[in-house]
Amino acid sequence: MKIFAEQAWINGAWANNVLLESNEQGFWSSIQPQAQAPVDAIRKTALVPGIVDAHSHAFQRAMSALTERGSPDGDNFWRWRQTMYQIALTISPDDLRDIAIQLYSELKRGGYSHVCEFHYVHRDPQGNLYSDPAQMCWSLIEAAQTVGIGLTLLPTLYMHRGFGQPGLQHDQRRFAGTPEFILDLHSRVDKYARENGLSHQIKAGAAIHSLRAVDPDSLRELAEGLGNAPLHIHVAEQTKEVEDCIAHLGARPIQWLIDNAPLNQNWHLVHATHTVPSEVEGLAKTGASVVICPTTEANLGDGVFDLVTALKSGLTWSIGTDSHVNRDVSEELRLLEYSQRLTLRQRNIASNMTGGEKATASVLFENALKGGSSASGLPLAGFAVGQRADWFELDLSHASFWKVSPEHRLDAWIFSTPAASLLHP
Q1: How is domain 2-47+389-415 classified at the architecture level of CATH?
Q2: Which residues neighbour 205 within 8 Å (Cβ) at sequence distance 6 or greater?
C-alpha cells in the first residue's frame, strides 16, 4: 500500500509531502518526506500514528455510567470496586465479546490502534472453569478481530483478597488462577496467533493483578515462566495499598518490586500513582515502564502521577483507558498534562520538564507512542521502517482545527477538542 500525505507526524515533528509504503506483512517498508505523489498512492492530508491503549478492562465498559452516585458515608475506590465485582459476576462469554466490540470500536475512533487487555475474568459465574479454559480469552480476540484493532492479551494472576489474606472473596471467584494456569492461557493465545498468521496483530503476555493479590513466590514463578513477553501489574494506585504493603512486606510497593522482582523492559507498572521521587528514579534505571490512566485515576479519586520526576529521570511511560470512562487519546493526554498544571499551578509542564524546546502536545504524544509500543510487545512506535503500519487521519473539518495553522495541528488535536456527542434540534 502507498499513502501520500501532505503532512505526517515523524520523529516528533511534522514532515511535509510524505510517501509511506507498507509491505504485505503490514509493516512500513519505506518512509520518504519531501516526495512526489505517485499516481497510484492514496492521498491524505495530516496523518498521525496510532497509539496503544496500554491498560484496558473491557468488561468495565458496561459500568461506566453506573457508579456516579454518592453515599451518606462517602464514596471511594473500594466502594466502586464492590460494584465492579457484582457486574463482573453477570457477564457471559457472549456478553464480553459484545462489550469488547463496542469498546474496541470506540477506542479505534478515539485514536487507538492497539489495546493491552488486562484480563482476569477467567471462570464462569459459579467460579468453575469453562470446558475450554480460554473461553473468555477467545471472546476478546474475536472482538478485536471483528473491529480490526490490535490486541495484547494479558491473562492475569489473581490469587488472594489482600495482603496477609490468602484466598479470594466469594465475589472474586471468577478471577481465580495460579501461575501454571496463567502460563497455559498465555501459551494458548500465543499458539493461536502464530498458527493463524496473526503475530503482528495479536501478542500474548500476562499480568499480575497486584502485590496484594499474589505471594512473592508466585510472582517470580510467573515472571520466570513468561520469558520475554510483556508482564503488567497494578501498583501503588491507592494510599491504603501503599500502607498495607509497608505493613506486610516492609517496603513501599514500587520499592519492593525494585528490590525483589526481576524488573526489566518487559515489566509495565500500571498507575504508580503514589510514589516518592527515589522510586520513580529507581524504576527508570531498571528499564521497566509505567502505564498512566489519567481519566480513570481521576474518576476513582486515585491521585496524580508524578510526571515531573518521570520526565526528568527518562522513565518510559504509556497511557491506558482502564475503566473506560473515556475512550479518546486526546482527552487522556490532555488530562495528564492538566492534572500536573492544577497540582503545580504552572503551565506546559511536559514541555518545561524536557527543556521547553518542544510543544507540550509533542512531548506527551511521543512518550505515549514509544511507551505504548513497549507495553504492547510489538513494533508500534510510529512512522518508521519496520514498525506496524498503523495510522489515523486528522479530521481537519472538525471545529478543533478552525483557523489552526499546519504546524499547530497536533496541539489543537490534544488541547482544543470540543465535544461532538450532542444532537442539536
Answers
A1: Roll (2.30)
A2: 116, 152, 153, 154, 186, 226, 229, 230, 231, 232, 377
Q: Which three cell numbers stand for residue 266?
A: 518487559
Q: Contact, 204 vs 189, CB < 8 A?
A: yes
Domain ranges of the chain: 2-47+389-415, 50-376
Question: What does the pLDDT look like over 9-59, one tens digit per residue?
Answer: 999 999 999 999 999 999 999 999 999 999 999 999 999 999 999 999 999
Report the candidate in 283, 307, 289, 284 with the shortest Cα–Cα distance to residue 297: 307
Rounded distance between C-alpha atoms, residue 84 and residue 324, angstroms: 13
Bridge partners (DSSP) listed for residue 203: 152
Q: Could you tell me which of 196, 268, 201 has the C-alpha nearest to residue 234?
A: 268
Which pLDDT score is estimated for 69?
85
Amino acid present at 358 = K
Quote the cell numbers at residue 293. 490512566
Give me the residues paired with residue 165 across strands: 162
Catalytic residue among 57, 271, 274, 324: 271
DSSP track, 4-54: EEEEEEETTEEEEEEEEEE-TTSBEEEEETTPPPPTTSEEEEEEE--EEEE
209: number of Cβ within 10 Å: 21
54: its cell numbers? 496500554
pTM of the predicted model as reported, rounded to 2 decimal places? 0.97
Length of the chain equals 425
The identity of residue 117, as a single letter, is: E
Instruction: Return the CATH fold of 50-376.
Output: TIM Barrel (3.20.20)
What percentage of the chain reaches a pLDDT higher than 70? 98
- C-alpha to C-alpha distance for 182 and 140, rounded to whole angstroms: 16
DSSP class per residue in 80-104: HHHHHHHHHTT--HHHHHHHHHHHH
Residue 114 identity: H
Which stretch of DSSP H or E encloses residue 151?
strand 150-157
What is the 8-class DSSP label of residue 27?
B
Q: Would you state the torsion angle of the CA atoms of residues 35, 39, 45, 51, taken in this order, to the nearest 10 degrees? A: -80
Burial class of residue 21, CB neighbours in 10 A (0-12, 13-18, 19+): middle
Catalytic residue list contains 271: yes
SS3 384: coil
Q: Which of 244, 302, 322, 328 is catalytic?
A: 322
